[in-house]
Amino acid sequence: MSLDSVRAFIAEHAPDIAVVEHQVSTATVPEAAAAHGCAPGQIAKTLSLRVGERVLLVVTRGDARLDNKKAKAAFGGKPRMLGLEEVAALTGHPVGGVCPFGLATPLPVYCDVSLKAYETVIPAAGSSRSSLAVAPERMAEIVGAEWVDVSEVPVSA
Fold first, then answer.
1. 101-130, pLDDT tens digit by residue?
2. HEC readout, 3-55
């Protein structure tokens, strides 16, 4: 069902983008990078966070870590990761397939500036075996995301 909601969302908002189903798991950043033959940083991972009473999504590059100090400043409180069941209930996507497209609940989406290091990024597409390729700016536009600087990128990146 989650993959279907992503397909419907993409068909409506960006019909030129193809949702790809893989024979192998793309649930983790290393698995997705291997399936696509790209650097882990090019994978766009979606973090499901709670800040106080608010729930929000942050899309960042796959090799980045959330910087709690930056996130607290940007979102006005300490971010906490949602539990697996809460992620699935609020996004409609299972962990490993969470993305900012076709959400079960309207949630604010933020894109981390670290994504701009790549011309194309590869977020999941609603299942642990699906993804799509999109320019970071286009992804932000499609989902109505706000740009933030809340991650820490490895020095070697």
1. 999 999 999 999 999 999 999 999 999 999
2. HHHHHHHHHHHCCCCCCEECCCCCCCHHHHHHHHCCCHHHEEEEEEEEECCEE
